[in-house]
Amino acid sequence: MLKNESKFTLTVILIASFFELSSCIQNENDKCINFEIKSPKSDWTYYSTEPIIFASSLDNDSLEWESSLDGKLGSGPQISVCLSSGEHLITLSLPEQEISKCVKVIVIQGQNENVFYVTYVPCKKTIKKEACTTGIINTGEKITEFNFSFLTDSVNKFLSCESEFLIDPSIWCDNINYAKLKPYNEISLNRSIIEPILGNRKLFYIADTTGSSSNASSINAVLYYSSDNICAWVPEDLTEDEYSYIDICLENLETIALPRTKTLWGSCADINGDKKIAILFSHTINEEGIALGFFNSADFFTRNVDKSSSHYNPFSNECDIIYAAIPESLDEGSFSASAITATLIHEITHAINFTNKTYNKLLLGKSELVEEIFLNEGLSHLSESLCGYGVSGGNNRFVNYYLNNMAYFSFAGNDYLGRTDSAGCRGATCLFLYWLFLKAGGMSYDKSNPLYFIDKGGISFLQSVVASESTGWNSIGEYFKKDTDFLFMEFCVELFNKGTVAIFDQKLRDPTTGEFVFPCNEPELYSSTKEYSVLSKSAIFFTDIPSSDITMNANKFTPFYFLYK
Length: 565
What we know:
six-stranded mixed beta sheet, 3 domains, disordered N terminus, 25% helix, 565 residues
């Protein structure tokens, strides 16, 4: 589905190459001393205002760091230093031994001299009120030691409405030890291929979306639809309206959503060998009222009812399967056909990304690698929008929920209540990922067939995140050869200076579905007279000049920025 009609062009501001001058030397015990430069990374970008962490794999205080431009930088296995603008050849050496490693980097002038960065600890910094501080960005640890420490006036307003937005959670089974699972060729022998014969009946297990029980319920379902790509299973007691709404979902999935999802992310593992993704529609999801659907990674592995076994997995359906609520209307309400279509996109994205991030690596004998929740959910929400169903799925609500309440949510850490997953966190991550998607070049539509995506760099970026050997925050910046904190700061500064209307095309519609691709509000501004705490990986923008000086105490090395008008 992906066309190769355009090429992605990226201006490289950091050119780096890794040179091994010597790899090891024999010491007096004839043991090979070997080490690597772990940081800075080859081919990555750095600003002159950004302290660079220089780190070695060898824990030795005698190690010395030197720059071809700035001279000696310091000694030890890890230091943090800002470099002057220009091309640097960084050398790490053991003076008493004839061994060294080098990395070549280019550093450019920092883009904003008014940005303050904590370069040493303990650090105390006072910003005078006359300096017109209008925003704060924290890329490191949570900071509480201000002369103001928490938003005290409006926390309760979130407690009543959070559940409205916490739809569509991904269900992960914690009782599976992925690292000890059997290889694919062994577990596949225990599975039977479903024959695509309409009217077939099958018993399925379905997880409790409320989380109140670790057990699953069982339902009998009928094979309602089968094609080359999907097979749909439904309860036997559906009404005519429910059948008609399911038909709409299946048509949307077959003709629009699934081809696009595969273009963006790739293919899901074919667990049971039928070359189809199974969809199970169930009333239990409607009745529980928590989710619109879910993906359960336990289904990728063999069912095992032996509680003493490390492979205990009693409710696996042993197939690549997505679960969805029964649609109850055409395009209105939480359980509309359009909302369920968006949910199917969301959950299939989970299944594909689990395939690429975790399952395929396990088949190769690699250790467990499971994506972090914030990024896993952010990617799936962005997938809804890019496939043309972001509005139908309510994805814009998650984004706007964050923009309206920026002080309460982190892009990659816990929110104001300590939760790792919430509507605001999902919205924040989705917004950041979309900005990066556009920064990488985005995509366009084929005018002759708008179902086709033309990659201009954005799709390559998304696939690089999923393909990365790392997870979470660190994996995001790899495509740009920049630290993710670095990109996050750039994003916040642009959001602060320009606003969402200038950054994102608010009138862009999907040419196939007609839905707005990424409509969003302007970020909410906060009064500097109230009390705040700045969460890790978060930003706060103020409406006014602080009434008093701001004093910040940092006891940890923390990238911390003050924005000015």
